[in-house]
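#help-structures
NK: newbie question, is this the right format to request a structure? protein is Energy-coupling factor transporter transmembrane protein EcfT
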Amino acid sequence: MFDQFFYQDKGLFLQSLHPVAALSYAGVLMVLALLFTNPLYLLGLLLVIILAVAAVDGLAAWETYLKISLGMMLLVIIINPLVVHAGETIIWWGPRLPVFGRLTVSLEAICYGAAMSVRLLAIISIFCLYNLIVHPDKVLSLLARFASRSALVLSLATRMFPAMIRQMENIREVQVVRGVDFHAGTLKERLPKYAALMNILLLSSLEDSLEIAEAMQARAFGSGRRSCYRRDTWRPRDSLCLGGSLLALAVAVYGQAKGCSTFSFYPELDYLIKGPMTVIVLIIIILALSVPVVLSWGWQRCPYFKAKI
């Protein structure tokens, strides 16, 4: 049930990228999600993220993230107009409260809450995309070149939760085969069953930690210079994806500096499209960020193109 939240190697294009290229792509998406305030740019960025998730066959996992995000988005849209009293276009006058004063709901506050909810969904979707395309061991291997011991601790920490989830499911299946029904009885009767399950999980985790320590000792960890088990090759696909990410970042910075991609909510709503440059900058950013998606489409359908990149 929890496997969709973790990395699964499916042999897809975005999963074959070099860790630096994949991290750069996800990092640029995150920076742009935090940088943009214009709702059009946030929606365009969200569209690119969804296309990238679809390219890595992760829409089923993204739907779970979406269900989690909808509640938080709704809270942002409701709470922000009630708390923030800025904005000149008042659409509702509420009662006067002793501490907060008179409640007012402005159109600007509603639009700001809606835009921030889209940003929240984009950020959560970026984390979903990161889990789908970036292998955690590859990322930590990059850090191991600078701090091997810290990278080892991070690697063990990131692998602990998914490993314990899978191990708990295995133990639960064994207990069910032996006749233990975790759904039968009252809460008081079910607690000892779950306590026994957690006890077995704890013992298994201790045994696994001893096996990891023995494996590290057998591999002479800490006895000398660290060797590299696997080296990732930098290929043309990585250059294209990295170039598209850097181009999108550069154009986004230019748009922010020139005011093409900015948007102000208070005291009055700004224009979504301030001129032709607003549309041009948006199109360039979307096309640059869509490079991995387009390459993934060609990589799956054209063997010659796949061999070249």
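mod (FA): yep, format's fine, and the tokens are attached above. Residues 62 and 252 are 26 Å apart (CA to CA).
NK: thank you!
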